[in-house]
Fold these 2 entries.
Entry 1:
Amino acid sequence: AFSKESFKCYLNLEKLPKQDTETLSKLKEIINLDQILKIKEKVFLLKRDCSKEEIKKLKEVLKDSLIVEKFYQRVYPYKDLFAKVLGFVTAEGKGQYGIEGFYDEILKGKKGIVKVEKNPLGISLGIVEKKALKGADLILTLDFNIQKKAFELLKKWQKKLEFKWGEIIVADPFTGEILALAEIPSYDSNFYYKEDPEKFKIKAIQELFEPGSIFKPVVVTAGIETGKITPDTKYEDKGWIRIGGYIIYNYNQRSFGMPSVKEVIAKSINTGAVFIEKLVGHQTFKKFIGLLGFREPTGIDLQGEVYSLNENLDTNRDINFATASFGQGIAVNSLQMIRLFSVFANGGYLIKPFIVKEIDFPNGKKVKVDPPIEKKKVISSKTAEILTQLLIEVTEEGFGKSARIKGYYVAGKTGTAQVPYTALGVNKPGYSKKTIQSFIGYFPALNPKVLILVKLFDPKTKTAEYSSALVFKEMGDYLAKYLNLLPDKRD
């Protein structure tokens, strides 16, 4: 995005000779004459963005009745490609949404002031001048080619899967740099005023969702870190489990006999997540939910991030903890999920995602943000290593095989979560038949370089295995070649 010098052209009706038929006749070529005659205001905006050639022609016709005002207009050369993450600048010069909103004060600079001081007799005592300060330039973490590919993939797969909206986020799990944040439907930032304001939302940070099974690693992390379970811990699975007056089922009410924790993750078994939560205990599970960043914002430098305190867990109701163990009845945003899986990829550190890596001020000062200071150890390196191995099983032996990338181990997880009626604006308890299908993972799993989240709203498939996992694979194939990543697996 950049700003260009532009001009607004106004017509001062008081200075326009009403009897000058020749002037009015020529003016018909610019604007409807009847419209002008009906206007009651003294000054009327003819055109917001006049070229110098147009100004010259208007001046010849309107002479003193033409008023020209110089202003700086924001231009977005890539139209809808970066719209969701950039936001826009209004006609009044105010940054809204995304980067434009978050960094508005830094980007717009400050106006200059010239003040003339006079004594009571009107004699000038001197001039006090405060120079205008130009706005700073921002250098982003976004990679143009990765963003473009993500955007193209969303459009391609939307035709096949018919989802209403979708997003792809690509990040560095060690630094927190966001390499791509693509969402559709998007809009052209140059013509934001023609769009439905609902399109301006960055769903990745401004819309909470129930994550489903991509949240299961949280309860497993709590179990591994506290020593309550190992990957080989087994339990008896009947395909269902009773919690008070409620019955929780596995997907398709399937029973797995005597599955291990490894299978709970690989085959996404709901009763297994509930079993682990019972062993861990409510308070410990809640502690890890907070520790892993799900009761606080990520702090991403984009305007308008929302998050949930997930206060339903403070009631200590068994059913709330049971459903939270497999990602239902708990609210998160997409960047929080990026942060969770980064913990497993980077050896146990909770990073802060960010999108501006350098601020270049007009005085020559450059401030680098690479990476932000906020980075803390939340789980042991050993636990992170175990989770990586469990997540590799998902794509090697479990329900995430369709996300495999040739030549690489992929650590990832599928998620298919029913959407509650309330999230659809329907005042009704329970869940609809609509789903959010997601896949999140990182690779090369044994030496992670990149992390990808794919999230789709209500694609025409039953589970994420047949939707978001396929999009993940194609995005991963591209990144492997584009970033020239060394293979860690022989296929």
Entry 2:
Amino acid sequence: MSADRPPVVVLGMMTKIPVAGVVWQTLHYLIGLERLGFAPYYVEAHGRTPSMLMSSDAQDPSDLAAAFLARTLGPWGMGDRWSYQVPGDPAATRGLDDAAVTRVLARAEVVLNLHGGTVPQPEHAAGGRLVYVETDPVQPQIELHDGVAETVDFLDPHVAFFTFAENFPGPACTLPDSGRYRFRPTRQPVVLDLWEGGPDTPGERFTTVANWHQPWRTVEFDGATMGWTKDAQFRRLLDLPARTSAHLELALANCDTADRALLADHGWSVADALEISAEAAPYRAYIQGSRGEFTVAKEQNIAFATGWFSDRSATYLAAGRPVVTQDTGFAHVLPTGRGLLTFATVDEAAAALESVEADPVGHGDAAREIAREHFAHDRVLTDLLDAVGVPVPRRAPAARPDSVHHRALADLPVSAYPGNLEDLRIREDVRRAVRSLPPTAWYWSMSSWCAQKTPSRRKKASIC
């Protein structure tokens, strides 16, 4: 272990979905934590066969997963800080063995269950530092509202809960809140310099990388059925190429021949997402070489106005490529109009694209500024770690007065906190303290205040 740096653990699922988007999303957490002064360890313990890596049943899935992780993490100096585990089968472990992982978990400042993709094992939760980081909201909240026992059993071992649904809970978001857990807003951290160095001149085409048809994870609420698949939203925009001078290309997976022909007939260019996403470097180059991103959101996030924002779109912004995307309510927390533009109808989409076409350089500069102010790894990860009482060895710049985290904590009603009466008394003191401080003073004072007022790490994580 890196004795001079506090360890943190990220539980992920890169080998389950070994495509560049998921790899980059995970790398931003790992590299960002490293740059903040931690020693990040990556652990896969989701127990799912890495079938996308397999070409035959004769192959050893653990060996394939190990080769993928070594190739992915080695160049970033983490070649000896990863483990692939199959719960209940120690012989399947690769990288750090189970005993070494248990020792790391025992020392870890925090254990991030990224995507909420790992079913918590006893050793993950033993230290009271397991944190849920939800990148795809809606279904868990609906299941909590419906009282699904399996969802409660899954979430209970965590001590803090973060979600990309930045408007949840709150008046801007109609997603039901069971009140059982307090969800805090977060977003994708981006290590900005990793997206610099692209072409000085924007490319010719607006692009995106997406799964076309994903009919699973449909939810029902208040008599309405809402899907998770993107093709339903793109079909509403089939005529868009005829309404704009912009060139539009979709790099798609799970898109059959008939749908590709349909898109081509309406003027869309279609590329193969898997060819672009097989490795991290070509995926980054594809984004850097684009004019900007044009994309849609899933119906669930639109309908509930969750405020969700794509991790992929965040990297377009970091590359200085403007983003035109469907509105999920994220304008409550992110600036829009320059560099980041929203639409609800095909006419609004055409107008947004023409705005970028009229000033691509100005929109590109604005995109970089949005990434710098709102997605930089030091800001995002420091906010998250401060919220659970983990000291950051290398502090981020002072938070802006309009900090999402400040607003969310200051405005949260006490009734949203689970816990006993003593906890509620302490938490009410926290709320009074937050509201008595200016936002920037709050940002720097909150961790030390919580450390003084809360008697244990577990309680600190649930309160602060």
